[in-house]
Amino acid sequence: MEKKRVAVPLVCHGHSRPVVDLFYSPITPDGFFLISASKDSSPMLRNGETGDWIGTFEGHKGAVWSCCLDTNALRAASGSADFTAKIWDALTGDELHSFEHKHIVRACAFSEDTHFLLTGGVEKILRIFDLNRPDAPPREVDNSPGSVRTVAWLHSDQTILSSCTDIGGVRLWDVRSGKIVQTLETNSSVTSAEVSQDGRYIITADGSSVKFWDANHFGLVKSYKMPCTVESASLEPKNGDKFIAGGEDMWIRLFDFHTGEEIACNKGHHGPVHCVRFSPGGESYASGSEDGTIRIWQTGPLTHDNNEMFRANGLTGKVKVAAEEVSCKIEGFHIADEGKAGEEAGTA
Description:
Helix content: under 10%
Largest sheet: 4 strands, antiparallel
Number of strands: 28
Distance between the termini: 35 Å
Shape: globular
Radius of gyration: 19 Å
């Protein structure tokens, strides 16, 4: 029996506390980008392919629980324990707006058309902020039955979904009426809810299971029992034939979507895995952990030779972020600690 090769991830240091959320931008003319949220209060932006640090968004005064980028990766958003959700300029790092809440903000998401920001948290209220009129009061959707853990948009921004920290299930809300139209029942609280890139599936992690739901008819398509309690799951976006899951045992597992068979098991984190996400092209995936690191793993053949690894995964010739494009992205970005930046450049 052929011995499995050991995966060698790109390790991204920089956060001083646990990494609790990750989000990849779609592929843009400048490449694609990865933003991370951490309890250290400072979301970070990275080159999504190489993991290289681009900048840190500074201004939150509490743990940051959620982060996202808009469709064009021009703006970032973050939700924090300091009772705010903030919008940032992803090119300069400037804070564009701060939306005050009355309690911890656990989740935030840009609408697909980038005009709105959806937030949820301990207040049990879903709010929709109009980014074209940031000083206007937000629209408040029917009270959530529990403290909000995750939020997402689907159906071309006509529907929003949310899950709760303290009760099971995913609730789907009609944006126009503000009413719950469907509940996807789960035994445990849903810690991760992702809408697949093609809009076909809602992927949830609850307790020790990963479930795939029909995003249009809301039926349960597949449910797989995991080897441990998992906190996050993500579906490979291009072919939809693989998914990843990570949780309390510190390992990131790759599974076959059709059979649930484990394909690979990646070890390297030194604490529970809080978040996993596939890159927009599916050639790699990222994990964030209690140990404060982000690790980027290659989806394809695993070797110790990075160049060979990139060739094996067909990355050569795909979207590459040219040096001048990255410098445009970095130009003017607030860099709080130049020493840290130098360290990052050396370790990422």
